[in-house]
Every structure is written in C-alpha cells, then in structure tokens.
Specification:
Oligomer: heterodimer
Mean pLDDT of chain A: 81
Mean pLDDT of chain B: 77
Distance between the termini of chain A: 36 Å
Strand order of the largest sheet of chain A: 2-11-10-6-7
Structural class of chain B: alpha+beta
Structural class of chain A: alpha+beta
Order of helices and strands of chain A: HEEHHEEEEEEEEEEHEHEEHEEH
Strand order of the largest sheet of chain B: 11-6-1-17-16
Shape of chain A: elongated
Radius of gyration of chain B: 41 Å
Shape of chain B: elongated
Largest sheet of chain B: 5 strands, antiparallel
Largest sheet of chain A: 5 strands, antiparallel
Chain lengths: 328, 724
C-alpha cells in the first residue's frame, strides 16, 4: 500500500520534472536560476485575457452577421479587425521576448521593515513596453527607457531575520491591445539579507561603553589633528559640528582610545533573555555603538567579531546576528 | 463604502507605490481622448441615416464630455448619466416616434455609445466601448457596400485600436511629448492592421460561405428591384440598368445554347390599353406537357438572390415544380413563401415540350381580349395582315416579325414617351424601345389578328462563368417576350425583340450597345466617371460577388476541384498556419543591433573618419587629449579640436539635454570634410607622452577607463592632488 503511494509520488515527481523540461516556466519554477535570466520563446507562454476572449466572441458574432447577410465588405472588415487583434499577440511576444533579468538589488533592512527590492532588466531596443512584474500580490509595471533598461521596485514586508528569497516572480505583458497575456515565471538565484529587528528601547550600552560615550561628550576641545574629512559611513554622532561650521566640508572626529575602553557586547552576558530577544538587544547595541562611534566587540555563541569600528564592522556583526541559527 | 474598502485593500496588497493596474486604474487623458475619437468615428457613417440635429447633439455631447474630463478627471454623478439616458431616449422618440424600427434602434445605439463616455471611467468600460463602436461600424457596412464606404469605415476603425494601445500603455512610463505619444499609439494600431492584411485575406478567401442565411435579412438591407407583376411602357427600365446578380444557375450535364435560355417567371395576359398584368383567376394545376421524341431535358439548380416576391424563374418549359413551390396552368413557378433570403431550388425543363395542345374557349377568350377604343391604327394593320393570310396563323406571325425587321425600328433604353394609344405611337411614330415595347406591341397586334397571344417576362441569356461552370443572370438580363398559341403546336415562343436587336439576345455584353449613358462622352469628367465606375465594378466583381461559387472556382484554379467545403476548411487552416508562421518569424527575428547613445555614435563616427584620414585615435585617448594633440595639425586641426571640445561639453557637462546645442554639434560634424590621408603626418600617439596632467579626474576617469592598468596609480595621485 505504502509502496503504491510512494510509487505514485515518484511518478508525479518524474512527470513534474519532464514537464519542467518540456515547458519551462509555465508554472512556478522548482529550481533557482542563476542571473541573468533571459526570457526566450521556450519559456514564454501566451493566453488570451478575459477581454481577449470577449473580443473574440464579439468578432465571432460580427462575422456570423456578415456571413448571414452575405456581405463581403463587412466580412472583410471583421476579418481585418479580428486579424489585427490576433496579430497583436506577435507584437506582444516580440515586446517581451529576449528580455533578460540582470540584477536584483536591495538595501539592507531590519526584520519588520519594508525591504525595497529593485530589479534591473534589459530588453531589445524599442521593445519592453509595459512589462509587469508580479510577486505575490504586488504588481509593478515598467517601461524600458531608450537604451532598453527596465527597473522595477518592489516593497516586500519582512518578518524574519536571515536570508529572504523573493521566490517566484512573474514577468508579463499585455501590450499592445490588452487581448493577450504573455508571461514567464522566474525564480532568480538571489537572496537578500534581512537584519534582525532591533530592540525598541534597549538599555544603555554595557559599562565600558558608557564611559567612552561620556568621554566623547566631554571632548569638545580636542586636538585638531584628531579631525579628518567626512567619509561615507561615518556616524552622525562623530561629526564635529563646530569644526565643520568653520570649514567647507563636514569634519569628523577621529577617536583614539586605548584597547581597554572597548565595549564588549556579549551574548553570554544576556542569559536572562530569550533567544530572539538577545539577538534583538545585541542588534540594537551594535547600531547604537556604531552611531556613537565606539569600538566594539561582538561575542556570539560561536564567534567573536572585533574589536573594530565603523560601518563595515557593523555590517559584519549584523550579518552574523541575522544568520544565527534558529532557536532550539 | 464597499468600493472604497476594496480599493484600499488592493492598494495595500499591491504595495504603497505600485503603479495602477491597467485593468483596474483610471483612464489617462490620452486614452480618454482616443476613446472619444473612437465614439465619434463610429457615429460618422450613421450620418446619412440620422437626422442632422440628432447627430450634432451626439457629437456635441461627446465634445462636452471630453472638455469636462480634461479639466477634472473624475466620474460624473450617476444621476446626471441617468438624466442624459432619459434625454437620449426622448430624443430618439422625438425623431422617430418609436424605438423599435431598425433606424431608431441604430440611433439609440449611437446615443448609448456616447453615454458610455459619460459613464465609463474604468479601462474595462473603455474596452467594451471600443468593441461596441466596431460593431456599429460593421453595421454601417451592411447598409452601404461600396468601395468608398468600406475604405472609409476601415479608416474609422483605427482610433479604436489606438484606444486599446493607449489603455495598455496607461501609467507612468516613458515621458514622451503628447504628440509623439499619440502618433506612436496610432502607429502601433496602423502597423497591426498592415500586418493583419494577409491573414485577413486568407480568412476572407477561404472561409466557407453560408449557402442560406441563418436568420432573416433586415428590412431595407438592400433595395430590391425585381420583376414586377405589371408591365407598362418603361416600367422595366430600372431593372435593365441594374447590373446586380439576380440568380445563378448550374446545369447538371448539358446546358442549352445561350440564345435558347429563356427563364420564365411571369405570364401576363390581361391588357388594359397600357399595362399588362397577370390573370386574376386562381391558378389551376399545371397542364400536361407532351415531350416529342428526342427532346432534350435539362436538369439545373438555381441560386436566386432575395427578391421579396414569390416568383421563381424556371427555364422554358419547366417539367417539374421545385421543392416547396407550385407550377400553375401558365407554368409559372410560385414559391410557398416570399424569397427573402438567398434560395436554392432545383428543377428540370424541356425547351421543345409542347404546351397546352388543346386551348379551351375560356382561356382562348382570355388570350384574345383587348380593350375597346385603343390603338385603332394598329388594329387595322393587324387585320390587314390577317386578310393576307386568312388561315395561316404562322404566316401572320412571320409577317409581323418581318415588319419589325424591315421597318426602321430601334432598340434603345431611352425611348420617347408614348401617348394614350401607346401601340399606335410606337408602331408609327417613335419606333424605338426595348423588349417590353416590342412584346407589348406584338401581343396587341396578334390578338387584333385573332391569334391568342400573351406576354411572358423573366430573364434571358446570362453570363457563362466558365471556370465556375455556372450561369450568372443579372437583373439587367430581364426580358419580355411573347407566346402565341398555334393549333397543333400549342404555345409557341416568339421573341420580337430578337428581330430588332439580335445582339441583345445572341451576344454577351451586347446590352451596352443599346444603352446610352449620361457619362458615355469623352470629356474629362466622363472619363473620370468611367474610371471610377470601372474601379467600382472591379470591387463589385472581386469582393461583393465573391461567394460560394467563386470560392469553388478559386479552389479549382489551385487544382483542388474535389476539395469541397471540407477541403476549404483544411485549406483555411493551412493558410492560417502559414500566415502565423510568417508572423511568428517576424516576432522572433533578431532585432537590429542596439542603437545605443546617438551622441556616442557621432563620436565613434568622428574617430573612424580620423582613422581614415590617417590618424588612428587610440582607445585610451579622450576628447580633450585628442583636441590638444590635433589642434595644430593641418588645416582641419582647429575644427576637429573644436568638435572634440564640443563633444566633451555635451557628454560630460550634461549639456546633451540642450537640443539646440546638440543640433549645432551635428551640423558642424557633418560639415567637416576630411580627405583620405589628410592627417597622415601626425606622429603615432604614445601613452607616456600624453599631456594629461591637468585633466579633471571626472573626465579622464570616464574616458580612460579602458586603459586603467598603467594609468591607475598616476590618476589616483592626480585625484589626491586636485582635492588639496
């Protein structure tokens, strides 16, 4: 009995596999595809839309009328319109054929935020009008610009930290007449990293950090040698506003502190909290430490990051936190 | 409330910044303008049918709505639309007094189409409006099938296609100027039509036609001319100049000779001095025909165009009645119902059969009766002939025919009018007329001479379509002839017209000889008219008359005689597949190489020209370096350097948005004339000698990216220095 069930399952899998080979991308894909994904005729599918079917019915009635009255001009007219509508499917096909999805891009975000996913595609020049991207319930349209580049922006709500795989996307078009839909399912081999959500109102940074923060607050009369021009990634907390006001550029304080003043954000020190709460607190602390420009070390159950400072370090830490295994 | 919450839901699902779905969002102004154009275009062909004020009202409403919508793109209140609907119905009632006739229905449909503009804010409504407009356009073709009207209506279908294109293009996309956008949308529609033509032609040629209609024809779809039950001088002229087909006949086996082909429809016996009419006595059963030995019997099938009368023309003399029809005593075929649709019937006839060998006294009297006090001169003439041959009816007939032949009688479609004594006038003074004049005069003369004679009207001759092997009879083939009763021979056909104008009977196309048209002259207008008529005739022959028979003829020409309707369907499928293969190839063919940036192409072009002139610009050399290097070289150096600096400014200073400067740059570029080898003297440029130390990093970084290797560190230092 169970053997028969297993056999049926195998059969279905084999059938699905065959189907996937013969008719790629007809339905949702099973496998991730490496970018760029080029849409070609073997993976583009065409069906009339509801309006297309209705138009066909109207043309049928018109033609029947013309035939009935043996009216050749009316028949010719109906044929001309009907054929023009039918030919639109080829125009539409050419519109999307050869389009290739080249890149996906997302700015880092924290769980609970909206992930802004940008998709870049390129199509043949002159084509690529009204290409619709569907993802879950979201639909976004884009037109190719003169060089054939298309860009869609999707807003994905995130709930969990870790890798976010956008899953199945559909690219489709109804251009030019809206009578046919031409589509292909894509499953790009690409994922976005979602950082853990930060705790809303975290307790202040551990001891050493507080001292350091106090020291930064005091250091209004620091030596000018410790200033340097602003570089992207410097926290706002480190901008020397007074010095900046005297200069054309933003000036940032270069903080020199002995090793012993480092903050250690220790996983094990938060034993009283739940698993995800610890992650949330550590995330909040990493952000805070980066904001005020501290040097910090992140101690995780099986890794130690730092001591270091700056945006790159923060990104490393957040990534490690995001990719911590699930609890239990 | 429900609407609002649904819309809110959708927006939430689609994400905050999702573009409106074309099927759900509103219409943009371009789409709405196209829709208004579509509606107005659909109303135009109705102009001859609708009262002018009604049509103007519809157009004005459409224009008002467009103006209102342009100012404030919001739906109108439901009450306003309702009020307008009531107004529309009222207007139609005012114009026609009813809603139920066909013209009133058309007017109402046009009104509703305009109201659709007021109601529809959604693309879905717009799509339906386009389909409705197309339907109206097709209906306009039912009324007028002329070439001009067909072309006109085809052009009027274009705004509908453009509307659909505009609808699927709705939303933020390319920012194009409106004029270009509109032209683009119309262009897509027109291109679709052009690409559709082969497919449309295949479908048109190969779609099997209906032999009989599925439902009745609309009233007044075609204005019917046909044989009438009354024949008075000149009454048949409308028929004789009408070149539309009346019926088509295919013979099973042998066909009779053309001159023997008389298609009998009506037998007119009563004469009131002016008009011949049918006998009012109800018809009796058909008399038995006697077939002489060796008489040929012809079997045939007739496809008759609708006439709205019941007469079925049958070949002289019919032996059997067609299905659902009767033959009466005079061998007139009468259908059970008026022929309101194309009808097919079969029968068989024997031209040599003998009809009514015994003529009973009543019928004899009926066929000799003449009104008193008419045509005394003709009466006297007939009695003179009778006196010459007291016992020989045949000789009297011959005398009469010889009279027609030997006196100067003319065959013409435009005879002089006849007075009260029409036969007298015709016989002595005018002596000009066509078949009905001769038939009428001959019958009068024979009756006056005591020979039972009657008038038969129907069709004569026809055009033999050799390829299709059928005979086409037009209304202009209508003819009137006589039958005289001779003892021992029964009713004998006599055709006096054939003695006046034999070509009328014996040759195809001979009819034109007798017709003098207003436009027969050779003036420019006449010639133009004739050309126009010729095109119209071609249209008529190629398109209007294309039917099942012509379709079969086409198959034959393709060598598929045996195909039949099934073969036609198969051929249709093959044709569609072929057309689709062609279109598919067009859709999948590789497109032309990417056009790229036009400015960059100009730059590459300049480099190629310099190379031809003898100076190969290395890939690492940017415009500024090139300018410095070439400025002093020869007579063109300064100009080329200026071009290089112009390119640099356009490309890197963001000036390429300035159309005027771009144009100026192009003009200078095209004006530059470089002969081959003009720059050959310049030394081969070398990398280490490039004078780029004062180059702005923004420029050199872009142009030198191809040669990053050796320049990399140097440029990094440059960047530092320029910062400080």
């Amino acid at each position: 009995m169970s053997g028969a069930v297993a056999g049926r399952g195998r059969l279905r899998a084999a059938l699905g596999h065959q189907l996937e080979r013969w008719l790629p991308a007809l339905l949702r894909r099973r496998h991730d595809e490496p970018l760029p994904i080029r849409l070609h005729r073997r993976r583009l599918y065409v069906l009339p839309t509801g309006f297309g079917l209705f138009a066909a019915l109207v043309f049928f009635v018109m033609q029947l009328g013309a035939l009935n009255y043996n009216n050749n001009p009316a028949l010719l007219f109906t044929f001309m319109l009907g054929a023009a509508c039918f030919v639109s499917v080829f125009r539409g096909f050419r519109n999307i054929n050869g389009l290739s999805l080249e890149a996906l891009r997302a700015l880092p975000c924290h769980a609970g935020d909206v992930l802004e996913l940008t998709l870049h595609a390129r199509c043949r020049p002159g084509q690529g009008q009204r290409i619709r991207l569907e993802h879950l319930d979201a639909r976004v349209q884009a037109d190719a610009d003169d060089s054939g580049a298309l860009t869609w922006t999707l807003k994905l709500p995130t709930t969990r930290r870790g890798w976010l795989h956008p899953g199945d996307l559909a690219l489709s078009t109804r251009w030019p007449l809206g009578l046919f839909q031409i589509w292909s399912w894509l499953r790009p081999d690409w994922r976005a990293l979602v950082y853990p959500a930060a705790e809303r109102q975290p307790p202040p940074l551990p001891q050493a950090g507080r001292q350091a923060a106090a020291r930064t607050a005091r250091s209004g009369d620091e030596d000018l040698r410790m200033l340097r021009p602003y570089q992207p990634g410097d926290g706002l907390g480190r901008v020397a506003w007074k010095a900046s006001a005297r200069s054309a550029d933003l000036i940032v304080r270069e903080l020199e502190r002995p090793e012993g003043q480092d903050v250690v954000l220790d996983w094990h020190a938060l034993a009283g909290l739940g698993y995800e709460q610890r992650i949330a607190r550590l995330t909040a602390w990493v952000l805070e430490a980066q904001r005020v420009g501290l040097r910090w070390t992140l101690q995780l159950p099986d890794a130690r990051l730092g001591p270091d400072l700056g945006q790159a370090h923060a990104a490393r830490c957040l990534r490690a936190l995001a990719l911590l295994p699930e609890a239990g | 409330m429900a609407v609002i919450s649904r819309r809110w839901n959708r927006r939430r699902l689609a994400g905050p910044r999702a573009a409106p779905d074309p099927v759900q969002g509103g219409l943009d102004l371009t789409a709405f303008s196209w829709l208004t154009a579509t509606v107005c275009a659909a109303l135009l062909p109705l102009a001859p049918q609708l009262p002018a004020w009604f049509l103007s009202m519809l157009m004005a409403l459409a224009a008002l709505r467009w103006l209102q919508r342009r100012r404030r793109p919001r739906p109108l209140s439901r009450w306003l639309v309702l009020a307008l609907t009531a107004l529309m119905v009222g207007a139609v009632l005012l114009a026609y007094g009813t809603l139920l006739t066909r013209t009133a229905g058309t007017a109402l449909l046009g009104g509703l189409l305009v109201l659709k503009l007021f109601e529809g804010e959604r693309p879905r409504d717009a799509c339906l409006t386009v389909l409705l407009a197309w339907f109206l356009l097709m209906a306009a073709l039912l009324d007028d099938q002329s070439l001009l009207n067909t072309l006109f209506v085809s052009v009027l279908a274009l705004p509908g296609l453009a509307t659909l294109v505009a609808l699927t293009s709705t939303g933020a996309g390319r920012r194009e100027p409106p004029r270009q956008l509109i032209a683009g949308q119309l262009g897509v529609g027109a291109m679709l039509i052009v690409q559709a033509l082969p497919l449309a032609l295949v479908g048109f040629l190969l779609l099997p036609r209906l032999a009989t209609p599925l439902w009745g024809l609309p009233e007044a779809a075609v204005d019917r001319t046909g044989l009438s039950e009354r024949m008075s001088p000149g009454s048949m002229i409308d028929l004789l100049i009408d070149d539309r087909p009346a019926m088509r006949v295919s013979f099973e086996g042998e066909a009779p000779a053309r001159e023997a082909m008389y298609w009998r429809a009506l037998v007119l016996t009563e004469f009131d001095g002016r008009s011949w009419t049918r006998l009012q006595i109800p018809g009796q059963a058909a008399p038995a025909l006697r077939l002489p030995a060796g008489a040929g019997v012809y079997r045939y099938e007739v496809i008759i165009e609708p006439t709205d009368t019941r007469w079925l023309p049958l070949l002289d003399l019919p032996l059997t009645e067609p299905q659902d029809a009767t033959l009466d005593q005079d061998l007139q075929g009468t259908a059970a119902r008026p022929v309101s649709t194309i009808l097919r019937y079969a029968s068989q006839s024997a031209p040599q059969a003998l009809l009514e060998l015994e003529l009973d006294p009543l019928r004899r009297a009926q066929n000799l009766r003449l009104p008193q006090g008419f045509n005394p001169a003709s009466r006297e003439l007939a009695q003179r002939w009778r006196a010459a041959h007291p016992d020989d009816d045949g000789a009297v007939i011959d005398t009469a025919l010889r009279y027609f032949r030997e006196q100067p009688f003319i065959y013409t479609y435009v005879p002089p009018l006849l007075g009260r004594d029409s036969v007298d006038d015709f016989m002595s003074s005018t002596r000009a007329g066509f078949c009905e004049h001769y038939a009428s005069a001959f019958a009068f003369l024979m009756r006056a001479a005591g020979i039972p004679t009657r008038v038969v009207i129907g069709y004569q001759g026809g055009f033999h379509n050799r390829a299709g092997n059928y005979w086409l009879l037009r209304y202009s083939d209508a003819h009137a002839w006589n039958e005289s009763w001779l003892p021992g021979r029964g009713w004998v056909r006599v055709d006096p017209t054939s003695h006046i104008a034999p070509e009328r009977i014996f040759t195809e196309g001979g009819r034109a000889a007798g017709r003098s048209s207003r436009f027969d002259g050779s003036s420019l207008i006449s010639r133009l008219y004739q050309q126009f008529d010729r095109v119209g005739h071609l249209w008529r022959r190629a398109v209007l008359e294309f039917n099942a028979a012509r379709q079969m003829e086409l198959l034959e020409r393709l060598g598929l005689e045996q195909a039949g309707p099934h073969g036609l369907v198969a051929l249709l499928a093959v044709g569609i597949v072929l057309a689709m293969l062609g279109l598919g190839w067009m859709a999948l063919r590789p497109s032309s190489p990417p056009s790229g940036d036009p400015l960059l192409r100009d730059w590459q072009g300049l480099r190629r020209r310099l190379a031809r002139a003898g100076f190969a610009v290395p890939t690492w050399m940017g415009p500024r370096e090139l300018a410095q290097r070439i400025a002093a070289a020869g007579p063109h150096g300064a100009e080329i350097a200026a071009l290089c600096r112009g390119f640099e400014a356009l490309r890197y200073a963001g000036l390429d948005a300035d159309q005027q400067r771009l144009e100026q740059f192009r003009r200078r570029l095209h004006a530059l004339r470089l002969s081959r080898g003009a720059l050959a003297g310049l030394a081969e440029p070398r990398l280490n000698s490039h004078p780029g130390l004062d180059i702005q990093p923004a420029v050199s970084g872009l142009t030198l990216s191809g040669a990053a290797g050796p320049l990399g560190p140097d440029h990094a230092g440059l960047a530092r220095r320029s910062r400080s």
